[in-house]
# Entry
Amino acid sequence: MATPHTPRPDALTMEVVDLIGSVVARYHEEYEAAAADHALTGAQAKLLSLLSLEPLPMRKLAHKLKCEPSNVTGIVDRLESRGLVERRPDPADRRVKLAAATDDGRRVARSLRESLRFAREPLAGLSEEERLTLRDLLRRMVGVEG
# Structure
């Protein structure tokens, strides 16, 4: 059975894909360095950042981090031992445990976000209209409604 012919992407599309890849690589590199400055692994920093927004059940954390719930348990254990995360019963279902950032955890997560400078300076060179356009285009690419 023949496979359908998919046209090759044009040069502009390939350049955009390469540039997105460069931005992602720089983001990960800087994120890992920021995490290390706080003696955290990248996974610990990501989990802490998620929990700084809202408490979440372990299964939902695993889904968001795209890993097994047992891995999340270990990450939460390590963050809990440092006083950055705590476990609490879910008010809607006391059988479920929520992981939540402590005040110290939220402070560390905020510091992590603030230390990511790779895009802040280049974005500051764009007008507000250009930043809004870029945001809207990126939202369309990832399928997020404005």
